[in-house]
Amino acid sequence: MTRTEDLTDDDRWRIALAKDRRFDGVFVTGVHSTGIYCRPSCPARAPRRENVRFYANCDAAEAAGLRACKRCAPDQQSREEAAVLAALKALREAEEAVSLERLGQLTDYSPTHFQRIFTRAVGLSPAAYQRALRRERAEEALRESGSVTQAIYEAGYGAPSRFYEDRKGSGMSASDWKDGGAGRTIHWSTVDTSLGSMLVAATEKGVCCLSFGEGQAELRARFPKAKLVEGGEEFSELFESVTAAVEQPGAATGADIPLDVKGTAFQQRVWQTLREIPAGETRSYGELAAALGNPKASRAVGGANGANNIAVLIPCHRVIASDGGLGGYAYGTKIKAELLRREKGE
Q1: Which CATH class, in words, describes the domain spanning 185-246?
Q2: Could you tell me if 78 and 24 are in contact, meaning their C-beta atoms sit under 8 angstroms apart?
Q3: Phi-psi group of 300: left, alpha or beta (phi > 0 → left; psi -120 to 50 → alpha; rest → beta)
Q4: pLDDT tens by residue, 130-185
Q5: Beta strands at 52-55 and 28-31: parallel, antiparallel or unpaired
Q6: Region class of 249: left (phi > 0), else alpha (psi between -120 and 50), else beta
Q7: Which CATH class, in words, describes the domain spanning 4-68?
Q8: Residue from 38, 42, 69, 208 carrying the catalytic annotation
Q9: Residue 42 among the catalytic residues
């Protein structure tokens, strides 16, 4: 993640498009065609880029003749919100880990109470947020550095073992990050199912892709630098288990099928929460966000759903619209409806 002091206007524009609330209080977005300024997370429709200027704070925006947006109210902050913003700024700028006790002193809250406030607002505990920051910085450094070890230390890890401990279960190693997946071998096959053609692919660690109506070209687009090997007798039993989980999702949930996934800390939490929804039940995006401790994170939950490469086994089809409608699905609502029908035993 780019440090606050290094943000460019291009960075700020990307943050505003992503409506990333972590940067609320770091800068404001001025829309000169309407004469207002907003938080980076403002839910309003994105303005045209040529009409946007960025300002360090509300005072600077108002000095330029802009007024505060009534929808996101960038000029109004509760004490709790101000505390969270101060903590986020301190965590992003820190060169080493910041203790919960130090955050409590900074924000004038008891450590345990502030942890609850922070987790509710951000969706991660302060410790988990710092781990996510270090991983993102390591990823950025790995793209620029010729040394994996150097990149890990530059990201703030005291030892390489701490980095690998953080990455446990995520599937991708530091070298995978640096090389964009080069050197990884993915075995794949297309299987005819009652839902149509299904693509299933796996590394030696587990299933890394499950999709419908796709083939080698789409798999290559998802993993551009990996070695793709069609078939493979040693993977036949795994692929058969995956097929059974798809054909009978209510009976064979696939909970024991190993997965090899890569995602941010938040995406990992969303995917794990999806796997905890019982077969036959559904959740709205808002309910899923609330289960993660951040009821306002519906949009981010939707983004994590969209980033899921492993259909059915990570059951994003169990997330529906708030009005009870099916909502969208990457492989079509017909497949989504059928999966839900089977899980309910209808």
Answers
A1: alpha beta
A2: no
A3: alpha
A4: 877 776 666 665 555 555 555 555 555 555 555 545 554 444 444 453 455 567 88
A5: antiparallel
A6: alpha
A7: alpha beta
A8: 38
A9: no
